[in-house]
Each structure stands twice: as structure tokens, then as C-alpha cells.
């Protein structure tokens, strides 16, 4: 069955809501292709979280002409409503990438593969993500610097987090010095909760954890998420950066422009790009730099199509080699998560789709921008716990506390949306159909497993081969088993068991019947069947010093073996941050813009290292 989202509401009510959205947001048209020129100072490929940021910041220099090319189109009306994010996964705003079959994971998923949702739209994946604003642990960034990337330590990047942020929340007065105020990116409190949230927060205290600001000085503890939302609207990189920049005549955004190749001259300098627009192959030339911001899947794909990558692999596909850079497409990382650990609860304690179907919920959003439509459905809280190895305060696990189970919609759409094998789904989850409940999803923040992006074809319209290689490293399995046990401890607290009647759904996972329930071998089997993506791909164009043979860009984000070319997005992360990565991706865009401005004399070299708070 194909999910079309209309089960959430009667179709007529949904149309009313979208009409209101169109009227109030103005349905902004970002496209300026009628002004497309032949020469630009900078060409940015991809209008996602990093690309929109760096393009808008470069256009602040009035003498520079900036071209931003986006393969997708305008943000659809439903993208503005936080609760309707799932509708976007079925439309043209999503790339709908597919992974290859996984060897060590996805046992309960169709063909042991997944659909990888990535934004193909102005605003990129910030247009269809969960909107959670978390930066990562300070040691993530200090570690980047220790790996040979000066200027990426926490003390240096904190400036750019604060520069981008407009904190409008109410919960973090004690940590206000860690937040930015007045930046482009609106960050607010999560605006609506189901009753089960109080149980999660009480359980935290019963287990000895504090309620924290994960963007403050400490990350171990429980937290209610901050969201990239403004007055009830999703606040994407397009809203934050491109819409204000649209008044500048020196920034040209061209939508539905699919880049097929970066053009190099005989000195291996990037001098332009080719792209398909309105059915025609077009070309734009560049005076200063090309900046690739396609994300962890598309950026290495574009580089390889352009002749920058592992020489032997490019030759196999008939791509002329410009620069032999073996690391392109390697080091792919994701935050693998277990989806399916479920508890039933007393009626009325969690959200159901009927909550959204109530006319009062719709009216609350239309007239007040409040209620369940004003927040992404499901996520109530999250937490980080101590690590067993190394620094105990640098977490290897994050937990997502979700109001609702996989039977949230009685099995109508969730199997296809998540990617479960339908027979597996019904065999395992049918007993909790129609019951209130919640889920806890343990997530690996620092997975050891590494995957790859490779060419399937030299045809730029053919998607690359994506192999996340989940759970190929045994430490990942051990950490997720630890995560299962912690999730059970949360569900067993008096706050949950007594306060909300929480009962773990302990049906034996299909395929694990031969193992002793609740033994470590059984939990490993569960992990290998239920672990999937959290859509946090990074690392495939690794930032590293010249001594690392698999580095792709240096600490200034310049691509090896060529000139006039940088990569600016999540793909440059040597190791993905220990949290939802969107805030860090925007930070990368902010820092990259200053690096570029300084190199071309638009600002003084910046920033000097600032002290820790």
C-alpha cells in the first residue's frame, strides 16, 4: 500500500490547512532562472542546509555574483507545517535513494534494504527532517581538530553555532551564554506534548539523570528537544537564509537544475558546471570557486562523475580521471537506530492519529499556530548516557522517546514509510494494534561501521550505489544491546510502569525464536532485525590532513588534486557528530563562508580561536 498521508485528516480539512499555509507563507518563489548569466564569482551546487547558508553569506559581498543550483523545486505547502513532514516523503521533494541489501542488519525490512530520504528541494533535507536542533558534543569537534583539522575545535566552531542561531526558547536561561540570539535560524521550544512526556522526564530523575540543555556545557542527561521552528512554522535553511537574501540582485537561485559535471581546465582548476535545466543541457562558468553542497550522498557522486575520485573505479565506468582521490565516497557514516522497541500504556497517555483528526486540533493550528500540528509528530524527548569506553561523558548512544508505537496508524502506512517487510511487521506488531503506547529508539552516535558511495553508472541521472554497511563492526552491536537494556530500564521505572501502565511488548522477534528471550544473543538478533537508518549520513568526503590517504578535503574544505573546488556539507565530517546533524551542517556552511571570504580578501582572516566558555 502506498502512503499518501490523507489518513491523517479528512481530505477537505487538509486542503483547508494547506490553503491557509499558502496564504500566510506567500508560497515564496526562490527561482530566478530568468536572470541566469554565463559567468559568476561562485557557483554553489545544492540549496540544502549548508548550500543555502554558504550561498547567502557569500552574496553579502555586493561585488560578488553567486549562482545557487538546486536539483529540486520549490518547498511544497505542506513542508511549512511541522506535523506534515511525512507527506513530503512521497512527493517530488525527496530523492528516494535506495540502499543496497545489507548483510548484517535490516533483517525485518523489505529486501534487507531501505529507502534513504534526502531533500531534493530548496532547503534540502531541512525541509523534511524532524527539526531537532542539537549541535553535538564538544569533543566531536575537538576530535576533528586533533585528527589534523585546525580551526574545527569546539572553541572555534561555537562562534558559528551562535552566529547562526536565534534562540527563542524558554527552558535554557541558565545556559544562555551558549546560545545565539538574532541569527537567521529560529530555535524554539517543542510546542506540544502528549501526557507521556512527564513520564519520560520523571523516569530520568528516577534513574539518576538530570534534565539538561544538550547544547550547553554537558550532554549526559535527558532533554525536551529544541526545534528549528518559528511561530508554528518549520524554519528551514531556505526560510532562514535564502528568503532574506532574495532581495540581493547578486544571488541567482535556479531550481530544477540537475548538475551533471564540474568542468576543469588543463590545470585542473574548476572553471564551471554543466547542468540540465528545463530539458536542456546548460553551462555556467566561474571566476573564483565551485562549491559542492549536495550532501553525503550527492557530493561524492558529483565529484566522481566529474573525474575526481578513485581512479580505478572511475576508469571502470569510463569516466576520464581528473584527479585520483581514493577517499571520495568512502567513510560513509550514519546514526543507526533501533525502531520497534514498544510499550503499551493506559489509554489517553500518548498521541494517536485521531488527535490530529479532531477539528479542534486543526482550528488550534489555523488560528493560533499551536497544538499537535505545530510540532513534528512522535518525538517527545531524547537523552544521552555515559559511554563504557574512553571518556564516559562523550556519549556513544542517544535515545529518542517517541509517543506512539509502530502500530500508530494500525499498520496502514508505517510499514511502507519505515520500510518493514510487511509479513515481519504484522507477525511482530499485530498484538499491540489499537493500543496506546510509546517507543524508545536507541541510536548509535559514534558508530564504528563504515559504508560507501560508488558509481552505478557514468549516467548522471542514475543514482549511485549506497552501502551503509550497518552493524559490520561488532562494537556497534554491543552498544545497541546496551541501548536496549537502558530502554528497558526506562520503561520499568515507577514513573512509566506505575504512572502510565507501561508494559514492554515482549513478543519474540520473528527470526529469533531459536534464542533464549532477553539473553544477549537474543538481543543481538533483535538488533540485527530492527536496526535501520536515522537519515544522518555524513563523512563521504572526509576532511583530513595530507597524511591521511583517504582524505578528500583539507581543513579549508578544498578538494585534493584540483583547485577552485570545495565541498561544504555533512560529507566533510571526519566522524559524524554525536547528535542530529542539521545544526552542525549549518555551522559548516557558516564557517566555510568566512573561510572563503577571508581567502578572497572580503574579510580579515577569521576567526581567531576563542576561549572556552
Number of helices: 16
Question: Describe the biggest sheet?
Answer: 7 strands, mixed
How many runs of DSSP E, i.e. beta strands? 26
The amount of beta strand, in percent, is: 15-25%
Structural class: alpha/beta
Query: Unreliable runs, pLDDT <50, ≥5 residues?
Result: 1-10
Q: Mean pLDDT score, rounded?
A: 93
Gross geometry: globular
How many angstroms does the end-to-end distance come to? 52 Å
Rg over C-alpha atoms, rounded to the nearest angstrom: 23 Å
Q: Assign a percent range to the helix content.
A: 25-40%
Question: What is this entry, summarized?
Answer:
The chain is α/β, with parallel strands linked by helices and 613 residues long. Helices cover 27% and strands 18% of the residues.
Descriptive overview:
α8 links the parallel β15 and β16. With 613 residues, the protein is α/β, with parallel strands linked by helices. It has 16 helices and 26 strands. The chain starts with 10 loop residues before the first helix and ends in a 14-residue tail after the last helix. Strands 1, 2, 11, 12, 13, 14 and 26 form a seven-stranded mixed sheet that branches. It has a six-stranded antiparallel sheet with strand order 7-19-20-21-18-24.
Amino acid at each position: 500500500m502506498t502512503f499518501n498521508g490523507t489518513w491523517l485528516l479528512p481530505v477537505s480539512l487538509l486542503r483547508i490547512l494547506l490553503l491557509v499555509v499558502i496564504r500566510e507563507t506567500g508560497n515564496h518563489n526562490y527561482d530566478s532562472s530568468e536572470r541566469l548569466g554565463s559567468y559568476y564569482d561562485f557557483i554553489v551546487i545544492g540549496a540544502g542546509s549548508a548550500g543555502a547558508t554558504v550561498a547567502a553569506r557569500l552574496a553579502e559581498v555586493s561585488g560578488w555574483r553567486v549562482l545557487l543550483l538546486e536539483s529540486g523545486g520549490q518547498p511544497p505547502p505542506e513542508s511549512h507545517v511541522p506535523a506534515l513532514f511525512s507527506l513530503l516523503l512521497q512527493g517530488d521533494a525527496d530523492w528516494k535513494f535506495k540502499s543496497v541489501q545489507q548483510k548484517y542488519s535490516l533483517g525485518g525490512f523489505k529486501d534487507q534494504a531501505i529507502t534513504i530520504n534526502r531533500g531534493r528541494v530548496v532547503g534540502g533535507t531541512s525541509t523534511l527532517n524532524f527539526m531537532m536542533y542539537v549541535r553535538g558534543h564538544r569533543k566531536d569537534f575537538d576530535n576533528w581538530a586533533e585528527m589534523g583539522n585546525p580551526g574545527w575545535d569546539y572553541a572555534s566552531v561555537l562562534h558559528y553555532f551562535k552566529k547562526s542561531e536565534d534562540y527563542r526558547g524558554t527552558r535554557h536561561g541558565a545556559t544562555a551564554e551558549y546560545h545565539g540570539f538574532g541569527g537567521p535560524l529560529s530555535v524554539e521550544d517543542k510546542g506540544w506534548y502528549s501526557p507521556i512526556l512527564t513520564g519520560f522526564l520523571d523516569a530520568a530523575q528516577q534513574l539518576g539523570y538530570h534534565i539538561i540543555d544538550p547544547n550547553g556545557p554537558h550532554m549526559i542527561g535527558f532533554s525536551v528537544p529544541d526545534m528549528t521552528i518559528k511561530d508554528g512554522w518549520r524554519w528551514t535553511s531556505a526560510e532562514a537564509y535564502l528568503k532574506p537574501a532574495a532581495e540581493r540582485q547578486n544571488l541567482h537561485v535556479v531550481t530544477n537544475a540537475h548538475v551533471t559535471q564540474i568542468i576543469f581546465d588543463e590545470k585542473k582548476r574548476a572553471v564551471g558546471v554543466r547542468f540540465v535545466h528545463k530539458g536542456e543541457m546548460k553551462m555556467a562558468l566561474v571566476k573564483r570557486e565551485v562549491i559542492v553542497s549536495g550532501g553525503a550522498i550527492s557530493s561524492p557522486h558529483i565529484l566522481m562523475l566529474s573525474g575526481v575520485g578513485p581512479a580505478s573505479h572511475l576508469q571502470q565506468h569510463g569516466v576520464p580521471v581528473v584527479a585520483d582521490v581514493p577517499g571520495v565516497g568512502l567513510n560513509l557514516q550514519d546514526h543507526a537506530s533501533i525502531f520497534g522497541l514498544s510499550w503499551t500504556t493506559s489509554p489517553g497517555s500518548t498521541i494517536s492519529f485521531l488527535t490530529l483528526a479532531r477539528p479542534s486540533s486543526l482550528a488550534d493550528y489555523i488560528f493560533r499556530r499551536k497544538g499537535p500540528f505545530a510540532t513534528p509528530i512522535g518525538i517527545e524527548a531524547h537523552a544521552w548516557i555515559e559511554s563504557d569506553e574512553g571518556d564516559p561523558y562523550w556519549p556513544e548512544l542517544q535515545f529518542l522517546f517517541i509517543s506512539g508505537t509502530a502500530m500508530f496508524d494500525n499498520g496502514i502506512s508505517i510499514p511502507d514509510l519505515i520500510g518493514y517487510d510487511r509479513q515481519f511487521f504484522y507477525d511482530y506488531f499485530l498484538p499491540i494494534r489499537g493500543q496506546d503506547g510509546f517507543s524508545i529508539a536507541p541510536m548509535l552516535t559514534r558508530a564504528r561501521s563504515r559504508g560507501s558511495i560508488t558509481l552505478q553508472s557514468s549516467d548522471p541521472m542514475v543514482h549511485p550505489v549506497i552501502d551503509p554497511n550497518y552493524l559490520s563492526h561488532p562494537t556497534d552491536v554491543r552498544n545497541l544491546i546496551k541501548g536496549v537494556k537502558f530502554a528497558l530500564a526506562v520503561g520499568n521505572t515507577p514513573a512509566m510502569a506505575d504512572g502510565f501502565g507501561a508494559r514492554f511488548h515482549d513478543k519474540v522477534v520473528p527470526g529469533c525464536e531459536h534464542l533464549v528471550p532477553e539473553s544477549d544473543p537474543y538481543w543481538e538478533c533483535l538488533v540485527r532485525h530492527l536496526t535501520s537508518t536515522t537519515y544522518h549520513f555524513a563523512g563521504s568526503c572526509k576532511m583530513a590532513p595530507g597524511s591521511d590517504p583517504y582524505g578528500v578535503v583539507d581543513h579549508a574544505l578544498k578538494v585534493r588534486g584540483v583547485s577552485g573546488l570545495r565541498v561544504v556539507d555533512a560529507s566533510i565530517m571526519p566522524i559524524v557528530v554525536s547528535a542530529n546533524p542539521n545544526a552542525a551542517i549549518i555551522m559548516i556552511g557558516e564557517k566555510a563562508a568566512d573561510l572563503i571570504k577571508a581567502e578572497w580578501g572580503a574579510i580579515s582572516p577569521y576567526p581567531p580561536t576563542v576561549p572556552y566558555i
